[in-house]
Amino acid sequence: MKFAILNGKIIERSEAKVDIEDRGYQFGDGVYEVIRVYNGKMFTVTEHLNRFVKSLDSIGITLPYTMDHLTKLLEDLIAKNNLQLGTIYMQITRGVTPRNHAFPSENVSPSLVAYTKEAARPLENLKIGVKTIVTEDIRWLRCDIKSLNLLGNLLAKQKAAEVGCFEAIQHRGQDVTEGSSSNIFIVKNGMIITHQSDNLILKGITKDVILQVCERNSIPVEERTFTLDEFMDADEVFLSSTTAEVMPIIEVDGKKVGDGLPGPVTKRLQEWFEQEIEKQCGALQDKILN
Ligand SMILES: Cc1ncc(COP(=O)(O)O)c(C=O)c1O
């Protein structure tokens, strides 16, 4: 039997149902997080919860629990579901109220839902890399909020899926922003370049871990806008996300990146990223370089 969290209580997953007038269901009026679990432990949980609160603040919802309480709830859920390797999905919406665009009065309580999923690491793709396409970024101007409204992202991802690609890399005019569910990095002459964390991208937790690792290992990084031309001319390209980790990109729109194999800088980052996981969550059974 599997369990889920519904409004602060752990209940049987099959019993976890939401009202048809939940504002998340009707308007996408809420925010979410996805947290990776390795060896039954959450990776970068504090960073994810801080971003969750930041997203909530941006749309005027107050987290109805303390951070400690929410962390404990998530830990209890992992234990109840006996989750070793997988993800936690968690969302909060503005709550249940008769449909009306304007926010309801303060006495409507936000709805919290969380559940777990078993998921292996994508080791094959991490070893050989993935294919991608580029597509115009048609999303709104607050991509820094991890909003439930994902239509722009879904349309981009679907375009990629239809041609057998893993990810769609979005651009606004000449400027590359981010993937439909990932941050994008290029490597040129040993320098790593990635879009600055502003309103046009989601400030990835994985991106932040990568930037910290680069700083500790004296790998030069520029956080700045880069163009499609720079992107197509890069020595290496990779993407990052909670579920995809540090994922080499070997093809863009049918053209090989470099020699079409994961590059040396990307591989070194993958190794350092695995070390970060092991520091927080204990030894990994299978590694990329095994
Ligand atoms: C649009 C977008 N950008 C970036 C990311 C990467 O963020 P994180 O590393 O926190 O998973 C995601 C993750 O889902 C995303 O949806």
Describe this structure in words.
The protein is α+β, with helices and mostly antiparallel strands and 290 residues long. The protein folds into 2 domains: 3-118, 2-Layer Sandwich (D-amino Acid Aminotransferase, Chain A, domain 1); 123-281, D-amino Acid Aminotransferase, subunit A, domain 2 (D-amino Acid Aminotransferase, Chain A, domain 2), CATH 3.20.10. Helix content is 30%, strand content 29%. It has 8 helices and 16 strands. The protein has helices at residues 23-27, 45-58, 67-80, 123-128, 151-162, 205-216, 228-232, 264-281; strands at residues 3-6, 9-12, 30-38, 41-42, 86-93, 111-118, 130-136, 167-172, 175-179, 183-188, 191-194, 221-223, 226-227, 236-241, 245-252, 255-256. Strands 7, 8, 9, 10, 11, 12, 13, 14, 15 and 16 form a 10-stranded mixed sheet that branches. The longest helix is centred in the C-terminal third of the chain and has 18 residues, at 264-281. Pyridoxal-5'-phosphate binds next to helix 6 and strand 14.
CATH A-level architecture of the largest domain: Alpha-Beta Barrel
Distance between the termini: 34 Å
Small molecules in complex: pyridoxal-5'-phosphate
Unreliable stretches (pLDDT < 50, length at least 5) are none
Secondary structure tally, helices:
8
Name the beta content range: 25-35%
Order of helices and strands: EEHEEHHEEHEHEEEEHEEHEEEH
Name the CATH homologous superfamily of the largest domain.
D-amino Acid Aminotransferase, subunit A, domain 2
